[in-house]
Design brief:
This protein is an all-alpha fold and 73 residues long. It has helices spanning 3-15, 20-32, 34-51, 62-72.
C-alpha cells in the first residue's frame, strides 16, 4: 500500500478498526516511513487536544432553529 492509502486508513488504525492483516501492513509501513509516522503523530496530538476540550452546552434556540430549517428543506 502506498503512503496515500496508508494515510487514509490511519484514523481507523488509531482506533483499532482495521483487520489484523491491515494492522500489520500499516504497522510495517509506519516502521519504515517517516512521513506517515508524522501524520499519525499529528492525528494523536489532535485527538488529545479534542479530548481535552471542555464540553459546551448549545444555546436553547439552536435545536428548534435547526429542525425548522430541516423541515423547510
Amino acid at each position: 500500500m502506498e503512503c496515500r492509502g496508508i494515510q487514509e486508513r490511519l484514523s481507523a488504525y488509531q482506533e483499532g478498526a482495521v483487520s489484523p492483516e491491515e494492522k500489520k501492513g500499516i504497522g510495517d509501513h509506519l516502521d519504515s516511513c517517516r512521513q506517515c509516522r508524522a501524520v499519525l503523530e499529528d492525528l494523536e496530538k489532535a485527538e488529545k487536544l479534542v479530548r481535552g476540550l471542555e464540553e459546551v452546552e448549545p444555546p436553547a434556540w439552536m435545536a428548534p432553529k435547526i429542525m425548522a430549517r430541516v423541515r423547510e428543506e
